[in-house]
Amino acid sequence: MSLVEQRPDEGADGVAARIDELPWYDRAMRWAQLTLVGDDPKEGSGFDPQFWVEYFREIKADGVCLSAGGYMAFYPSDIDGHYRSPYLGASDPFGEIVAGVRELGLVVMARIDSHAVHDTIAAQHPEWLSRDERGQPRRHWSAPDVWLTCPFGPYANEFVPLVNAEIIEKYDVDAIFANRWAGEGRCFCDGCREKYRNATGAEIPVPPASRGDYSADEIRYRQWWETTLLATARAWDAQIRAIKPSARFVPNSGGGALSAFDMAKLAGQSDILFADKQARSGLSPAWSSGRHAKEFRAVMGMKPVGGIFSMGIEEAHRWKDSVQIGTEIRMWVASATANGVRAWFTKFAGAVHDDRWLDVVKDIYLWQAENEAYLRNTRSIADVGLVYSQQTARAFDAADSERSVNRPILGWYQALVEARIPFNMVHDQLLDESSLDPYRVLILPNIAALSDAQADSLRAFVARGGTLIATYRTGLLDEFGHPRSDFVLADLFGVHALGTSTDVTNSYLRVRHDISDADAAAVIAPLERTSVIINSANRVDVELRDDAARTVPLSLIDSFPDLPMEEVYRRDFDESTPQLVLSEYGNGRVAYFANDIDRAFSDYLVHDHFDLLRSVVEWGRNAPELVSVRGAGVIEVVAWEQRESMTVHLVNMTNPRYLKGPIVETLPSPPQFISIVIPRGREITRARLLKAGSDIDVLVVDGRLEFTVDEIHDFEVVAIDLSDPRQ
Questions:
Q1: 238: which residues sit within 8 A by CB, 6+ positions away?
Q2: pLDDT classification of 255: cutoffs 50, 70, 90
């Protein structure tokens, strides 16, 4: 009997019955991963398979991912060249746990790793190895006596399918989950050289010094690499389905704007993916897990996505046996869950050396199991979209990608979270009408690389009544990273590009309170007591087009000396150069910032910039907020509809180290006044706070539910049960 069938609070015709009818990849909501290590099967290691089966039962996990094979087998494999754990002996830890969790009714994925082989296997199969441009096999950068494998040769095309087939045929599993399946670095083995030559007629190019190298040779190689890799994933999936039609191949992927391959393409051929952003690193903010969830939701739509989190401290020095403070784990999962991904904890090594995390995960999972119906989202109700562009990221090297791609996104992300505006992320390859239809406002944070077709889609979005907000170099490169002579969206922006100015010091923005357009004046209304605020350090030099009426609320005060102090005064009083241009196009609106104000906000956190970013979104929406949350503190707001309800997640990011990333405690928020639009044709049958476990007194005013939450500790979820619109 499955766990969902055991829940006493569900009737035979309720949520649990419907869950059992779903395919396995949509059924599981709370995943557990156990990544075994080589000495786990050793006697006295502390690894106990039955401990994990019991723990999975206690926390009401409904899906597990267990180490099976590939680099190292944790079952008695019969495949030649399949390296076993040196302590495996006659044991079968993988099979033992599979049998135990299947009795509980859990979904099971078998984990393989295909990026490396042990020294003894490399000696037997040198044809499996990845090679550098000199033809030399490539050693693993971390582990001794380990060699990297070629992702396109006989290892991937012959050996891995044998492993997949053996696992599927031998054990009762639902899928093969592959870690590091895309290989590590560029391979120059004879097989890759021949395949590339046959496909393109060219030789594999040496990796460029800069990732932003968009030479014809490099573009051709990247296209071949991506096409071949995605074809491998499809081939593995087809082979697995041929053995067991319900089974799938599930490729692990880091995802996001800096991912090596097109996430939209990977999502298009996948029934389920997992966002592998396991914990905070460095000073990344508390909402980083939510951002990663949004990036996956952008390409997966409402397909299931898991959010992988670890208990460890995720830094470059790789402390895999570490355990974070419980508060940080809770907040990481809260933001990810709020943004629509399913919890997946990963534990490295089967022995538990530090048990502080066990009760933390148990509390999280038991709460989620109790409230599962409110976490099975069917539609986001956000009307603001924030675009991220892998296309743009590929036009820059690693350092420039951080500055020019990631930080503008971070600036907008933080501004939208702090403004309590529900929003989604949008992938730059999914700008068609159906993908953009839910949004009133679409934000382009320095989306430098745009094709003509993408530009046409954005024009159509605005013509239909949407608002486009763009910054800095948006549209000054084509899809291959080649410079354009002018903005591809110059007609929307209302300006021509004349050049760029970078690293500018002591530049300012003139706040033009003399503009006559009342709506445009509202954008700068938060700055009513000043006529000058700081500019960013980078801008496109622009001039206004003369083909339409434009409003310029902000203009340029150009740089002047900042030392000696006696020389700190303006010389140039020309304020005709626009820095923010507002206009109308078709039925929609357009706001263009000629500077990188989003990156500046990420870097310097100047409140004037926050006020501008928030108010320009409100100008763009030009309609009441669907969800309004007012009160002190930093509250992330995310809103969803489910089959019979809607929810608003309120994640309290207020903590002593908010701007440093780490969380040691959360500070309870003061009262929050909340107003939520009720979907047309629906009535509220019940409203409650799921974390507090209390009902809300229903007060509907002009189609909005209005109430006050006295305080929020780590997070709260407002759950509103709705009548069936068919009744």
A1: none
A2: confident
Contact 393, 448 (CB under 8 A): no
> According to CATH, what is the number of the domain 384-621?
3.40.50.880
Backbone angles phi, psi at 118, to 5 degrees: -70, 160
Contact between residue 538 and residue 500 where contact means Cβ atoms under 8 Å apart: yes
Nearby residues of 616 by Cβ (< 8 Å), 6 or more positions away: 469, 523, 580, 591
Second-level CATH architecture of 3-377: Alpha-Beta Barrel (3.20)
Quick one: pLDDT at residue 455?
98
CB within 8 A of 671, min separation 6: which ones? Answer: 631, 708, 709, 710, 711
Q: What is the pLDDT of residues 150-175, one digit of tens each?
A: 999 999 999 999 999 999 999 999 99
Read off φ and ψ for residue 482, nearest 5 degrees.
-85, 140
Query: For residue 498, which of 482, 486, 484 has the smallest C-alpha distance?
Result: 486
* Residue carrying structure tokens 């060249």: 81
Classify strands 305-310 and 273-275 as parallel, antiparallel or unpaired.
parallel
Of the CATH numbers 1.25.40.10, 2.60.40.1180, 3.30.43.10, 3.40.50.300, which one belongs to the domain with range 627-722? 2.60.40.1180
Q: Under a CB-based contact definition with an 8 Å cutoff, are residues 380 and 438 in contact?
A: yes
The whole-angstrom separation of Cα 297 and Cα 295 is 6
Rounded to 5°, the CA angle 370-374-378 comes to: 145
Half-sphere exposure of 599 (CA within 13 A, CB side): 27
Average pLDDT over residues 52-61: 98
* DSSP secondary structure of 64-80: EEEEEEESSBSS----T
β 467-471/588-593 pair status: parallel
What residues does 652 pair with on adjacent strands? 635
Q: For residue 222, give the 3-state DSSP assignment.
A: helix
Residue 487 has φ and ψ, to the nearest 5°, of: -55, 135
Q: Reading across the β-sheet that carries 635-642, which strands appear in turn? A: 377-380, 635-642, 645-652, 715-722, 684-689, 694-695
One-letter identity of residue 343 = A
Whose structure tokens read 């690499």? 225
Could you give the CA distance from residue 673 to residue 233 in angstroms, rounded to a whole number?
48
**Residue 392 belongs to what H/E stretch?**
helix 390-393
Q: Maximum distance among all alpha carbons in the chain? A: 84
Among 647, 623, 8, 68, which residue's Cα sits nearest to residue 337?
A: 647
Q: Extract the tokens encoding 614.
A: 């928030």
- Could you identify the residue written with the tokens 């066990």? 358
Of 384, 396, 403, 337, which is closest to residue 365 (Cα–Cα)? 337
Q: Which residue ranges make up each domain of the chain? A: 3-377, 384-621, 627-722
The chain-wide mean pLDDT, for the chain, equals 92
Bridging pattern class, strands 175-179 and 248-251: parallel
Encoding tokens for residue 266? 């990977």
- The rounded distance, in Å, linking the Cα atoms of 468 and 459 is 9
> In 3-state terms, the chain is what percent helix, strand and coil (to 5)?
30, 25, 45
Q: Between these two residues, 237 and 658, which has the higher pLDDT value?
A: 237
* CA atoms of 475 and 495, how far apart (whole Å): 12
Q: Are 352 and 328 in contact (CB under 8 A)?
A: no
Beta strand residue intervals within 483-535, DSSP E: 495-501, 508-511, 532-534
